[in-house]
Structures are given as structure tokens and as C-alpha cells.
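Proteins fold reproducibly. Next comes a concrete instance:

***
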Amino acid sequence: MTRMVRKQVYIEPRQEAMLKRVAAMRGVSEAELIRRAIDGQIEGGHAGFLPPDADAWEQAYQFMLELRARGPVAGRARTWKREELYGERLGSHGDDSG
């Protein structure tokens, strides 16, 4: 095993939540996810991550086009307004100007 150096960093609560969620989804430790992110930033690439899959992107794009073509779901009206979403987003980052 490679020798490791212990570091302590401070992150925001939202970053901690994302870190835990993504680490669990990928089946790796939070520390491993952080190491991969550091490698990606320093090397300018996506170290430890899968390469882009053009076929998967095309399938996803076609699926989105199909959903758009179907139109709104009958009987399920939207209950929110765009301004409300932006207000929540800005509020969660400590910006009350929204």
C-alpha cells in the first residue's frame, strides 16, 4: 500500500453531504474521492474517473428529446415557480439579494 500523509481540511456542510452521497454511490471511501479530485485538479484531467461515453450521452439525449415531445404529464400541474427555485438556491449559499 502506498504511504499516505494525513491532512485535515475544512469543507462546507453541503460539500460534506455531496461527498458522502457520491462516495456511497461509487463504492469508495470519502478519502479516495478527495484524492481523485485532487489528482484531477492538479493533472488537469479526470484521474480515476471513467472516460466520456459518447453512446451513453446520445442515448440520454434521445431520451430527453422523447420526454420533451410527450409534453406535460396529464393531471400533474407544476406547483412551483422559477423564482422560488432561485430564491432557495441563493438562500442556501448565504446570498439574500435574490
User: Anything to note?
Assistant: The radius of gyration is 20 Å. DSSP finds four helices and no strands in the chain. The chain has one domain: 13-92. The chain has a mean pLDDT of 83.
